[in-house]
Please model this.
Amino acid sequence: MVNSVLGPNSLGATPPTPSAASPSPAMGKPATPNATAGVAPTTGAAKSTANAVSDAAGSAANTQDRFLKLLVTQMKNQDPLNPMDNAQVTSQMAQLSTVSGIDKINATLKALSDNMSAGQSMSATSMIGHGALVPGSSMELKEGKGLAGIDLAQSTDSLKVLIKDGANNVVRTMQMGAQKQGVIPLAWDGKNDAGDALPDGPYKISAEFVAGDKTEPAKTLAFGLVNGVVPGSGGAKLDVSGLGSFNLADVKQVV
Model:
């Protein structure tokens, strides 16, 4: 009686084995076309931006997942006599969406900034081997020639430049007369006020101009050759021979 109710398989009979000729689920299945075939490769900048946005999306998703888990746990353990306010839940959800959106925007802006820095570095390489006027007060006299510059904040009727030696003694005073606002290149023939040629080496310059009835100091510029470009998170920097590293914005004139 028991056997008639349970059926033959209940007595330990082995179920039939599939025939060897039966096709495997994977056999006979048409090959899936390659989704990337024929797609043009993206540029490195585009990939960098896409990766940054993708990372931000993943981070935002993880944040949302953690938030929802905490919210569900909080709702499960809430006091039945004092349940959570719907307005409070809605406010928390809105805050989460705002934070997630800000994360994505920050990641996108950072990726764009990195791409701009890379492009800036490539553009700056064209300045290698050229002379540049950058903030500074030094002047190198070489083979009887010295180059520098003045960054004049406003037009003036009188501009005076002082050249000093290593002991801070004034060896040459140059009266440059009226000058317009802007960058003024300065060339020195290496001679002192008496007309005597001075030895090559480092010198210093300072300048002053007349503004109304007052005499104001003028910004001086040092001259150097651009040896290379150093990329960085804050943008490309130029390695100027004998003067150090400068941002592109510090370069007042390329000569």
